[in-house]
Amino acid sequence: MTYEHDFLVIGSGIAGLVYALQVSRMGSVAVVTKSNLYDCNTDYAQGGIAAAIDAKDSFAEHIEDTYQAGAELGKRQVISQIIESGPALINYLIELGTDFTRKDDCYDTSLENLSLTMEGGHTRRRVAYAADSTGHQIMEALIAQCIANPAIDIFEYRIAIDLITQHHVVQDDGFIPGISCWGAYVLDTDNNRVDIFRAKKTMMATGGASQIYVHNTNPKVATGDGMAMARLAGARLANMEFVQFHPTAFWSPDSETFLISEAVRGEGGILRLLDGYAFMEDYHPKANLAPRDVVSRAIDAELKKRGEKYCYLDATGIPADKLRRHFPYIDSKLKSKGIDFTTDPIPVAPAAHYFCGGVLSTIDGVTDIRNLFVAGEVACCGLHGANRLASNSLLEALVVAYNAANHYSNMDQVDFPIVPQWHLMDEFNENEWVVISHNREIIGTIMQGYVGIRRSRRLLKYALSRLENIYNEINNFYQHNAVRKEVVETRNMAVIAIAVIRSALSRKESRGAHFLIDHPERNDLKYKHDTII
Q: By residue range, what is the domain housing residue 262?
């Protein structure tokens, strides 16, 4: 089946839905999402969205905090433009219906009445939030707007397999130079049918890839699909070595991981070892509010030194009513585990959380591939550098998606080539299914063990050799069997895992979220540049 729209959006987080709403004024929009609309990283976002709103704050301070947290690898002009756009676009979210927490519990929804919290790496209280479910509140507002919009068609439980580019189309009339995107081949997972979604412009808003690690804070859909598809189509990836580990993911023996917001430390939570020692002052002047890469490495070092699997986040010094009011989601999750965080310390350990790198793009989401935009965690526009400042992710997704939707090229006329139907195989070898199920598990184990918080070149090379063989096995299965969601995801995970390792091997220094024990110091003379593959 072929679907035709003016605009195709792959992914249903903040970036995808903001773009969809904005371009719906210019034409028809298809939103394709792998699960249901809520199943995305945005919905998991607890902390908030950073912006210089308070009268005591300034754009200059937020810019400097972002640049320093990113180990001076971010693009200053990009940082400035995104941060200066923040207040106006938070107001845009409020107008769409986002219910942020306010200072005074009244109907005053002005920016001046927003309650602001503190997070690691910031020098001011500048994080606007909705209790500890900010992402969910944003999604509620955006989804309601999209469902009510007659120009937007929503397709759930569909996974994009490949971008439609010159690699697929018939070129009988001569070569089509460069690389262009005319939509995507999309698998309807309920019916095992591959459809063509044809569009003049495609927005890739598929989120990150932290599922390539065993321990992560992301939903199961975060398998790097957009990054991998863009890479396979010929786009460049940037700064893939900078995988941010969140310092405080809940730890339990059954490996069920969920995020404990950085705002808990912003309100006064203290990291302690099992013997009660508050160790972060030994590592950084900002102690518990140091940037995420510093805190994650400190916890990792202390746990390995002691042979322990977790430490504690002690929030018992925060008034109980304030703690429960600000963090109701965390409160309910912890209570289900038998923990009352007003009286008990929370067991935590670092977990893979966010990709600072991604598909190389401009601040308007423009990529190497004509007609293809990217926004959100899938993209690398130059904001984060080597490490993301807390709560800058929703800000980036919002600003870049809004810019992309208002980019002049959305009005371009596009000539469509003949797009062939997907060659759908009937055969599916159940006996060889272990190639997918087993290798998916191995990818996570290898990445966790050899490409984690502290890396060595010897183990990186070993991991690369293993993963290249695994990719060949997966790709061989993919080429000779009917397509399935799990096969596409596992292919994408292998592609992205290899990209992370190759990028890490090319950076012989330690910077931001990339720490190499062979080269523990930062080397601005040789490596103060982006890693492009």
A: 243-353
